[in-house]
């Protein structure tokens, strides 16, 4: 399998090169030349363990020997507290897919533990160093740090928006004092952090000189790891209920998690619908409900990992909606860069796979309180957004709600919603009083380059 750019201006490259490149050198996002049709494999995949399923799905996309891939998968999920990596919990008439049993209690661990080990493997084979640049709205940063901390020949520079992540999320990042970890609080929004990262990667001379790599969901390997749990959850729920199809409700801000579901559906997984759930930063909901993809100011919410206006992974989806026409896509993205708005009028008919809705902070709190009191199940604010939006999209097929973070990461929201100090986890409680280290900077690509240069010169 070779990889191409959504902008169409690089030669096809193998999987390992795509992983190391991160953002395509022409400014686009990398995608496989084709999406494999796995329908003939589904029956044989149904009873596989999570790790076995990882190897089967990933082998369709990755140029890695099966024994090596198996070893990488085993190593990646060794720190998870669930033997099957994820857990599926029936709650009321739905199934909650718990994705937060990794080392930082967020769904990002599933992809970033794997990606960190892929980086390590490629560097061991090829030699050299890697300087990872990441932007985070909360969970990506800590998961990425824990995926590469103390790894030889890897440094990581993580930007987060100053005072716009939860105190727990910030502590999970800044309490890691390993020499190869550099946390940076940017005086701006997550969109500013993401814009800085893309600007730095667009400087190909700087990117090559400092061997830059990405762990954000612009890196295809992250999405590949996330595709697996859609198959796993669907197989388990269909087996339990006797249904032939399922639908997923996915809280999302950057369109990465739900795009992995889109890939699974294109591979042949019987998905009735993907329910896209946003908070009041609802640019994606507006696109799928009325074709409006126009930016507004980022609004701070109780679900900070979704406080995003420019969804970087949306370009991959638009590429398919453009009929895989890289020229058309490039023109659309240039228009968006100038005008901060896109129109869906040139994309043809609507996509029946997607439906969407948004959720206010008040509804988030009410949902958390209701599910806790009625079903004795505690949702974090992001997962509550997905649960609430699913209320508006009832179906005859089972609904699987993705739970993307442990509620202990958001104790203030839990107390506000339930009136109880009900959200605890030993990994979070153990961070209290930890020593921290973090730099601060303005939203400037020049400042970031200077910081990277100073660190690499030591």
How would you characterize the overall build of this protein?
The structure is a single chain. The protein is of the alpha/beta class and 458 residues long. Helix content is 44%, strand content 16%. The protein has helices at residues 15-21, 42-45, 50-59, 66-76, 108-126, 139-148, 167-174, 190-202, 204-209, 220-241, 256-267, 283-290, 314-321, 326-339, 361-375, 381-390, 411-418, 426-429, 445-456, and strands at residues 2-5, 13-14, 30-32, 87-91, 94-98, 130-135, 154-161, 181-186, 212-214, 246-251, 271-278, 292-294, 341-343, 354-358, 399-403, 439-441. The strands form four sheets. The chain has a six-stranded mixed β-sheet, with helices on both faces. A five-stranded parallel β-sheet has the order 9-6-7-8-16, with helices on both faces. Strands 2-1-3 form a three-stranded antiparallel β-sheet. Helix 5 packs parallel to helix 6 (139-148) and helix 15 crosses helix 17 (411-418). The mean pLDDT is 95.
Strand percentage: 15-25%
Discrete helix count? 19
Distance between the termini: 39 Å
> Gyration radius, to the nearest Å?
20 Å
Major sheet strand order: 4-5-15-10-11-14
Q: Outline the biggest β-sheet.
A: 6 strands, mixed
